[in-house]
Amino acid sequence: MRVILVGCEYVGTTTLAHAIDDWLEANMGVRFSLIHDHWKIPHTSGHPDDSTPEEQEWLLAASPKFKEMHQRHSLYYHVQANTFNAHDDGMVIGAAIEDGVYGPMYFGYGGPGHRLDRETVQRQWENTILNFTDETVLVHVTAETKVIAKRLHDDPHDNMVISEGDIDKVKNRFTELVEWSVIDKKIQVDNSGSIADTVAQFVAKIELYLTDIDRSRMKEHSSK
User: Fold this and answer.
1) First-last CA distance in the chain
2) 156 is in which domain, residue-wise?
3) pLDDT tens-place string over residues 134-171
4) Which residues pair with 187 in a beta bridge?
5) Exposure string over 127-164, b if 16+ CB within 10 A, otherwise e
6) Region 56-67 average pLDDT
7) Greater pLDDT, 84 or 97
8) Domain containing residue 156: CATH number
9) Hey, how many other C-beta atoms are within 10 angstroms of the C-beta on 208?
10) Cβ neighbours for 204, distance < 8 A, ≥ 6 positions apart
11) Does the predicted TM-score (pTM) go above 0.90?
């Protein structure tokens, strides 16, 4: 199973990724070797992020040119580093679509007219994936605006990216880039409620795109 989860900050992509990992282990007897979640500046390292507060401040103070280069190099590395071209399973959160939303909107790079505009980068990144495999599923994770706003206030992230007034704008841009994506295996799940309900949505919708290896592992695991 190769999955890319994308969605506005506070929709719960990270929580859902780990819940899917648990489901994979319970139903196939395997886990994702890593869950790649590197594209919300300044949280751009580690599994999960292990940057110190001082390192986060340093990255936030960096120039748009450096931020752009850092994120682009991370994207290009991860598309080549076994996630899509060697293992049977891969989990990526955000990646080119997330960078394509946040770079132009918050960090001063990648918008229309930029020599490395993020729509071009997204298209290059996705075409590289498709050269390796057509099994990748793009999962658009959504939630109601009022739910996102409540989570933002109740449990704010350190150095969060979005602001409450931008929630609808950010959600809409994610939708645009998901629709524009050339990855044709796409599903959408709503994470406004419980994570158990969201996983149930995911399981029902991913069934169409399970690989032969996935199905074989499920059959073998259920027989134990």
Assistant:
1) 21
2) 2-216
3) 999 999 999 999 999 999 999 999 999 999 999 999 99
4) 139
5) ebbeebeebbbbbbbbbeeebbeebbeeeeeeeebbee
6) 97
7) 97
8) 3.40.50.300
9) 9
10) none
11) yes
